[in-house]
Write a structure and sequence with these properties.
single chain, about 150 residues, mainly beta, 13 strands, about 0% helix
Length: about 150
């Protein structure tokens, strides 16, 4: 059987053309992959990434968050292998009580850490996703496009 090798030099997804007419270096669909590269060369390799796997369960004072809890923003710190989540739960404890959390999960040691837990202080709103996040040293700066806030990540 012949070995088929495909180079994705363009590294571009193209869903608007039939698979049989796809130009070299493009692909139609990709799932749970990322293009890994090194700083010294432009050579990259497609590698599998983790999909939607539940990493942990979030709780506060021994009570799990409600099914209405929503992640409204996330940030990946690749150097520390840590993911930060901005979570809003409008019905904590089965009552209409807004709970906002900033939590992190380290994939190296499976450590979950709660950085900020507030009732009505951060005022997270699922209609305004947190898309602007930056970590400088141990400070995490974030914005939902309306408010700019920060917290200590360590």
């Amino acid at each position: 059987m012949a070995i088929s090798t495909t180079n994705f030099i363009k590294g571009r997804m193209n869903k608007s053309v039939d698979e049989r007419l796809l130009p070299p270096g493009e692909y139609v669909d990709a799932m749970n992959v990322r293009l890994g590269a090194t700083e010294t060369t432009e050579i990259g390799a497609v590698e599998n990434t983790r999909g939607n796997t539940q990493l942990t369960t979030l709780e506060y004072s021994g009570t799990n968050l409600s099914s209405q809890a929503t992640c409204i923003g996330a940030y990946e710190d690749g150097a520390l292998e840590t993911v930060y989540w901005f979570v809003h739960d409008p019905f904590y404890g089965g009552v209409k009580l807004s709970l906002d959390l900033i939590v992190s999960y380290n994939t190296n040691n499976n450590a979950l850490r709660y950085h900020v837990i507030t009732f009505n202080t951060l005022n997270f709103d699922p209609q305004y996703l947190i898309t602007g996040v930056e970590k400088i040293e141990d400070l995490l700066f974030f914005s939902d496009g309306i408010r700019k806030q920060s917290c200590r990540s360590n």
